[in-house]
C-alpha cells in the first residue's frame, strides 16, 4: 500500500509501529516499577505517586472481587476527572472486568439505557450523582447489584477530607449517601482490602480481551457500545507517544482537563501520560477557568490535550493575562475542527506552544490522524496517519479514489475496535475485512467524507453522518427530536447543527406547532433540558408552518441546513455593507 505520508513524518517518529502488546494493568504496573516515587496524579494540591496508585488499584481490584465481580463482568464508572476514576478504571481492568464509561452529564433515563444495554453489575459514581440512579434503581431490567459511591473528600488528605464536607454543607451542595442495601463507599472498599492485606486474585487477561465499552451513537443516534480491547487502548497510547518523540519519560506534566469518560481524554490525557511516567494534574471541572489556569501555572504543565472549546475559553478569558502559561510545550486538539484563529491566539498566549489538530473516532480508541507536533502543520488538515495506521479514501463501492478526490475515509490498525457490543449487524456495516498480500486487513468505515493530497495529508470535507458536535460532544438529531415530539404542543420537529463560534456548533430546532397551541422558544428549551443533557438541548428554536419533506414524507434536514447557511451568509453580507 502506498503511504505518501511517511515522508512527512518528523524526525524521530518511527515509520512502523513497534509497540509491545500489553494489557492495561501491565501498562500501569510497569510504570509503577519505572517511576515508583514520581507523582502520577495531582489533585487539589495533593499528589499520589506511581507506587501508591498501583497499590490503590490492587486494593480496588480486591474489593471488586470480594463483591463477586468475575472476569468479563461490566463495571460502570460515572466520575469526573478524579483519582478515584483512575483507580476504579485500572482496578476494574485488573479484576478482569470490562469498564463501561458513563458520562456524568447523563440524566436518569440516559444512564438507565446504558446500564441496561451493558448489563453492568457494579456502578461507581460520585455521591452527588446518586439521586439520578435512585430515580431508576427499581427498574427490573437493571443488573446493578452494588453501587460504590465516592466524594471529592475521598481523594484529599487529613484534615481537608474532613473540612470539605463541612464547606459543601455550608454551601448547600452536600449530598450524603449512606451505606445501606446495595450502596458501599469507595473508601470502605479500599480500607477493607488494605486492612485484611488481601491481594487481588490472579485473573488471566489477554490483550485481545475487551477492556472497555465506550458508547457512541453512530448514524442512528441509538447508543452502541464500541468494544475496545486492551490491545486497542494500549496501542493507541503507544502510537500517540511515538508521534511525539520529544516527550521526556518521567518529566512531563499533563493537564487532565478533558474528561476521562470520553475515549479521547482517557487515551491522550490518562493512558499516554501513565505510559511515559507523567504527572497528571486532574481538573474535575474544566469550566472553572480560574482553577485551570492556576493549575497550569502552579504545576508547570507541559502537555495539554484539549478541545477547541477549551482553548477558546482560555483565549477569551479576562483572567488569562494574570497567569504564566509558558511551560506548555505540546497540545493536541481533538473532538472538533480547530479554528485557525483559536490555534494562533493560543500559541501567542503560551509563547509558542505547539497546538495541532488531530482526528479520531470512538471506534479507533480514538486517534488515527494528527498534524506533526514538530513538523509541517497544514491549516484545515487533520494531518497524517499515526504509525501503524493505514488510511484510505474510498467511493461508495469500496474502491480507492484518486489523490485529491473526495470519498469516505477508511482506517485500519491495532487500535480499531473489536466490534459493537451485542450488535453484530452494526459491526458488519462498519468493519470491512479485506484480503491483501500481507494478509487480512480490518478496515473501519468512518462515515466521514475526506480527501488526501499528494503528500498524504488528509482533510475532512464533511460529515456523512448528521451528528452535531457541541463543544466536542456528539449530539444526534433523532434523540433530540424524540424529546421534542413528547411536548404536547409539538406537531413536527427537526434538529440541525448551526455554527457557533464558542462551541463549534449548537443545536437548532425547527418546530411546527399543533393547531390552537402556543409555546415560547424558551419553554421548548426548558422542556428538553428536563430530559436531555444541557448541551443537547436546543439553544435556538424556530417555529414554522411546515417542514421540508421528501416524496416519502421524510423531513429533509439537509434543506434546513442549506437554508440556515444561506440566511447566515446574507446576514454577513448585510453586516459588511452596513459597515
TrEMBL record:
Region (Disordered): 371-394
Sequence ranges assigned to domain AMP-binding enzyme C-terminal in this UniProt record: 479-554
Official protein name in the record: Long-chain fatty acid--CoA ligase
Source organism, top-level taxon: Bacteria
UniProt keyword terms in alphabetical order: Ligase
Gene3D superfamilies in the record: 3.30.300.30, N-terminal domain of ligase-like (3.40.50.12780)
Family, similarity comment: Belongs to the ATP-dependent AMP-binding enzyme family.
Molecular function via GO: acid-thiol ligase activity
Chain ranges of the AMP-dependent synthetase/ligase domain: 28-421
Membrane-spanning intervals of the chain: none
PANTHER family per record: LONG-CHAIN-FATTY-ACID--COA LIGASE, NONRIBOSOMAL PEPTIDE SYNTHASE PES1 (EUROFUNG)-RELATED
Amino acid at each position: 500500500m502506498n503511504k505518501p505520508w511517511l515522508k512527512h513524518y518528523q524526525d524521530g517518529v518511527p515509520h512502523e509501529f513497534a509497540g509491545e502488546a500489553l494489557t492495561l494493568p501491565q501498562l500501569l504496573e510497569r510504570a509503577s516499577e519505572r517511576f515508583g516515587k514520581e507523582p502520577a496524579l495531582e489533585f487539589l494540591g495533593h499528589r499520589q505517586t506511581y507506587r501508591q496508585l498501583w497499590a490503590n488499584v490492587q486494593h480496588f481490584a480486591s474489593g471488586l472481587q470480594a463483591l463477586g465481580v468475575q472476569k468479563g463482568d461490566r463495571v460502570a464508572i460515572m466520575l469526573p476527572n478524579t483519582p478515584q476514576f483512575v483507580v476504579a478504571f485500572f482496578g476494574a481492568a485488573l479484576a478482569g472486568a470490562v469498564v463501561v464509561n458513563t458520562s456524568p452529564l447523563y440524566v436518569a433515563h440516559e444512564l438507565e439505557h446504558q446500564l441496561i444495554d451493558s448489563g453492568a453489575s457494579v456502578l461507581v459514581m460520585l455521591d452527588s450523582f446518586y439521586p439520578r440512579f435512585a430515580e431508576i434503581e427499581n427498574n427490573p431490567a437493571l443488573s446493578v447489584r452494588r453501587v460504590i459511591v465516592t466524594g471529592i473528600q475521598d481523594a484529599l488528605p487529613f484534615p481537608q477530607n474532613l473540612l470539605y464536607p463541612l464547606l459543601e454543607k455550608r454551601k448547600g451542595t452536600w449530598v450524603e449517601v449512606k451505606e445501606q442495601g446495595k450502596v458501599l463507599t469507595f473508601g470502605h472498599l479500599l480500607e477493607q482490602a488494605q486492612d485484611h492485606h488481601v491481594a487481588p486474585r490472579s485473573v488471566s487477561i489477554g490483550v485481545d480481551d475487551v477492556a472497555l465499552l465506550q458508547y457512541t451513537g453512530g448514524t442512528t443516534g441509538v447508543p452502541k457500545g464500541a468494544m475496545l480491547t486492551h490491545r486497542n487502548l494500549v496501542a493507541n497510547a503507544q502510537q500517540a507517544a511515538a508521534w511525539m518523540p520529544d516527550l521526556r519519560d518521567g518529566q512531563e506534566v499533563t493537564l487532565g482537563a478533558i474528561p476521562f469518560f470520553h475515549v479521547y481524554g482517557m487515551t491522550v490525557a490518562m493512558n499516554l501520560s501513565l505510559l511515559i511516567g507523567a504527572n497528571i494534574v486532574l481538573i474535575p471541572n474544566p469550566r472553572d477557568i480560574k482553577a485551570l489556569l492556576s493549575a497550569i501555572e502552579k504545576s508547570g504543565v507541559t502537555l495539554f490535550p484539549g478541545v477547541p472549546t477549551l482553548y477558546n475559553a482560555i483565549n477569551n478569558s479576562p483572567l488569562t493575562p494574570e497567569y504564566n502559561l509558558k511551560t506548555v510545550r505540546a497540545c493536541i486538539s481533538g473532538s472538533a475542527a480547530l479554528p485557525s484563529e483559536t490555534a494562533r491566539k493560543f500559541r501567542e498566549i503560551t509563547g509558542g506552544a505547539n497546538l495541532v489538530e488531530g482526528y479520531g473516532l470512538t471506534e479507533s480508541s480514538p486517534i488515527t490522524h494528527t498534524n506533526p507536533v514538530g513538523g509541517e502543520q497544514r491549516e484545515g488538515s487533520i494531518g497524517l496517519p499515526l504509525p501503524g495506521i493505514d488510511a484510505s479514501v474510498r467511493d461508495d463501492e469500496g474502491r480507492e479514489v484518486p489523490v485529491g478526490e473526495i470519498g469516505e475515509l477508511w482506517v485500519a490498525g491495532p487500535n480499531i475496535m473489536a466490534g459493537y457490543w451485542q450488535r453484530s449487524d452494526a459491526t458488519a456495516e462498519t468493519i470491512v475485512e479485506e484480503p491483501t498480500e500481507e494478509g487480512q486487513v480490518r478496515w473501519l468505515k468512518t462515515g466521514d467524507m475526506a480527501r488526501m493530497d499528494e503528500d498524504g495529508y488528509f482533510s475532512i470535507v464533511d460529515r456523512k453522518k448528521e451528528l452535531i458536535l457541541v463543544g466536542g460532544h456528539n449530539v444526534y438529531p433523532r434523540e433530540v427530536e424524540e424529546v421534542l415530539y413528547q411536548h404536547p404542543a409539538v406537531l413536527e420537529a427537526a434538529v440541525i447543527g448551526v455554527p457557533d463560534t464558542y462551541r463549534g456548533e449548537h443545536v437548532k430546532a425547527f418546530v411546527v406547532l399543533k393547531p390552537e397551541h402556543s409555546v415560547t422558544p424558551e419553554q421548548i428549551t426548558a422542556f428538553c433540558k428536563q430530559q436531555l443533557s444541557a448541551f443537547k438541548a436546543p439553544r435556538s428554536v424556530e417555529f414554522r408552518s411546515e417542514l421540508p419533506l421528501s416524496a416519502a414524507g421524510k423531513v429533509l434536514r439537509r434543506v434546513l441546513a442549506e437554508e440556515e447557511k444561506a440566511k447566515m451568509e446574507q446576514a454577513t453580507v448585510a453586516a459588511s455593507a452596513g459597515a
